[in-house]
Here is the input.
Amino acid sequence: MSSHAFTGHMTDRHPAGEPVLLGAEELAADPDLTAGFPEAAHQVLAELVDGGAPLGWVDPPSLDEVTELLGRVLAAARAGDAALRAVYLDRRLVGLGYWVRYGRPTNRPHADIEKIALAPAVHGRGLGRALTTAVVADARDAGIEVLTLDARADNERALTLYRSLGFTEYGRLPRFVAVGDVRYDKVFYMLDFREEV
Here is the structure.
C-alpha cells in the first residue's frame, strides 16, 4: 500500500476496502464524518481499553469523556497547537492519532504524541505504521523540534514501531503504571527533528 493511496479526501466513490487517512481539516470538511466522529472514536477507544490496550484508561472512557477530549484536540489543531489524523475503512473509523504542543512557554517548540489507537480488527495491515508516520510528518511540518511520547513497557509492538521510525528511549519509570495489582514500567521516547538539519 503506497502512502499516496492512503491519504486524501474521502468520497463515496472511494474504492471499497482501501483505507483513507484524513487530517483534522479534511475530517471537518465532511459533515457526516464530523457529526459521527466522537461516537466512532469512543467506540474504537472503548473497545481497545476493554481489551486491555495501554491507552491510559483502566476502564473504557465514557462518550462524554472522549467527546470532551476530542474537542480540546480539535480546538488546539485549529490554533496550530496540535494535529489529528483519522483512519477510515469503508467510511468507518478504525483508528486515530494526535499530537499536542506542550503548553508551557519554555516548551512550546515541542509536542507530545498523546494517542495512537487502531481497532484490533485492522491490526497487521500496516495502518498503524501509516497513521504514526503521518502524525510524525505533521509534527515535522509544523516546525516541532522534539516529538515525545510515553508508552507502557509491555507494549512491545508499539515500541518496535516507534524505534523503527527513529524514536529513541530517553527515560523510564519502573513499575509506574498500575493496572489492578499489576505494575508496568512507563517508558519515554523522543524524536529530535533538530538532528535532521
Confidence is low (pLDDT under 50) at residues 1-7. The beta strands are 19-23, 82-89, 92-101, 110-118, 146-152, 168-179, 182-192. The chain has five helices and seven strands. The first helix runs from residue 24 to 28.
